[in-house]
Design goal:
- The chain has a domain of 73 residues.
- Helices cover 41% and strands 8% of the residues.
- The protein is built from 3 helices and 2 strands, in the order αββαα.
- Strands 1-2 form a two-stranded antiparallel sheet.
- Strand 1 and strand 2 form a beta hairpin.
- The relative contact order is 0.09.
Length: 113
């Protein structure tokens, strides 16, 4: 597994106001808040429609299908933990390590008061 290079020198932080992008931070915060609110509305709408559908597949308005609730096949997943326990050599042989990335996340500032 590739580890971060401790000799690489990058700044620990950047003042977004000084960089002229503090407004974009506020935009991201607003979008995240609205997205969470809309996700909740979407969840409620789906639940109401799914309850009305019951076992039916299609939901119609004025005779035209507007929603479809299909059955899907059960997912199949590889139990990597069990495979590693039973055949660690195979797991090691076929494990490919990708390039490390960076995760971007919004942090809600805490008041120092």
């Amino acid at each position: 597994m590739t580890q971060p290079d401790p000799t690489q020198t990058t700044p620990a932080e950047v003042d977004l106001a000084a960089a002229g992008v503090a407004g974009w931070y506020q935009v991201l915060q607003d979008v995240a808040t609205r997205r969470a609110e809309l996700d909740e509305v979407e969840k409620t709408a789906k639940e109401k429609i799914q309850t009305a559908l019951g076992d039916a597949v299609d939901g119609v308005i004025d005779g035209r299908p507007v929603v479809r609730w299909l059955h899907t096949a059960a997912p199949r997943r590889l139990d990597k933990k069990a495979l590693t326990k039973d055949h660690p050599d195979i797991v090691a042989k076929y494990t490919v390590v990708g390039k490390p990335g960076r995760r971007f996340e919004l942090v809600t500032p805490k008041d120092d008061a």
